[in-house]
Amino acid sequence: MSSASPRHVSVLPLEVLALLRPAPGQVFVDATVGVGGHARLLAERLVPGGRLIGLDRDAAMLELARPRLAGLPVTLVQAPFSQLRQVLDEQGVAAVDGLLADVGVCSDQLDDPQRGLSFMQPGPLDMRFDPTTGEPASALLHRLSERDLADLIWRYGEERFSRRIARRIVEARRQAPLETTVELAELVRRCVPRPAGRQRKPPIDPATRVFQALRIAVNDELGELQRLLTILPTCVRPGGRAAVISFHSLEDRLVKTAFRERSLWEVQTRKPVQASAEEVRSNPRSRSAKLRVALRLSETL
Asked: In the CATH hierarchy, which fold is given to the domain comprising 130-218?
C-alpha cells in the first residue's frame, strides 16, 4: 500500500451526520474505518467527552486513517465487524450511542494493484481485505468445481453467462493456473458477447460482475454483514442509531430485512438514502450507495 495521501472519498457524509446525530459525550462505532473519512466527521462531533471506536480488518487502511484521526478521541482496532461485540467488551463498552458501517470497498484498496481487486491494472488475483488470512481468489478459482464456480458467479455477480465463464476457467486452469487480474479479465471478455446495436451509454466491462462475485466470496462479505446485523441489537443502546451504507442489492436486502424487526428497530429511512446528482458528479463511486438508518427500541432481547 502506498504511503501517499488517501484517495478515497467518503459517500453521503452530510446524510450520515444528519441521520446519526452524533453529539458531545456520546460513544460511537465506525465499523469500517477505511481511510478515516466518516470516522473523522463523527469523532469531531463527539468532543468533548465522547469517543469513537473504529474497526477495520485491513491493517493498511488503519495506518492510512491514523494521521487523519490524530488528536481526536478515536481507538482503532484491527478486526472484522462481525467481532464487534467482542471488541466492545474488550474496550469496556456495554453499548454505543451510534454505529456506522460503510460496507463498500475503499478506493485505496481498489486502486492498489497488489490487491487484485480491480481489472483496471495488472496485479495478482488476491482480493483479500486482510491479506494475512483466508485464501486468495486465485486459489478459489483453482479449487472450486465448474458447477460451484458458475453458481458463485451467478449468485454474487448476477452474471447470466456464468456457466460459460466457469467452463472456460476450468479449461484454462488445466493448462496453467489463473494468477493475474489481466488473465481473468481477458478470459471473461472472450466469454461475453458484445451488446448489439448502438448503446446510449458504454456497457460495463464484462469482467465487472465476475470480479465482484469473487471479491464477495473471498471475503465472505455477505456472511460478515449478516453476522454484524445479528449482533447489532446487543451493541447499540436503546435510543441509539445504526446506519449501514451498502452498494449492491444483495447487501441492501440483508439490511432492509434486519431493520424490519419491529421489536428491535424503528426505521428512520423509509427508502434508502442515495447520493445527490452533485455528489455523483464529484464522486462517481457514490452512485450505487444506499444508506439505511434505524433507531434501537427499548424492548429487551
From this structure: DNA polymerase; domain 1 (1.10.150)
* Among the four given CATH numbers 1.10.238.10, 3.40.640.10, 3.40.50.150, 3.40.50.300, the one describing domain 13-108+222-296: 3.40.50.150
Question: In the chain, where are the structural domains located?
Answer: 13-108+222-296, 130-218
Give the pLDDT confidence of 43-73 residue by residue, as tens digits. Answer: 999 999 999 999 999 999 999 999 999 999 9
Q: What predicted TM-score, i.e. pTM, was given to this entire model?
A: 0.91
Of 126, 286, 135, 154, nearest in space to 213 by CA = 154
The Cα–Cα gap between 109 and 132 comes to: 15
What digits encode the pLDDT tens for the residues 181-227? Answer: 999 999 999 998 877 655 556 578 889 999 999 999 999 999 999 99
Q: Hey, what's the cell of 12?
A: 453521503
Q: Are 124 and 112 in contact (CB under 8 A)?
A: no
- Picking from 175, 251, 169, 249, the residue whose alpha carbon sits closest to that of residue 207 is 169
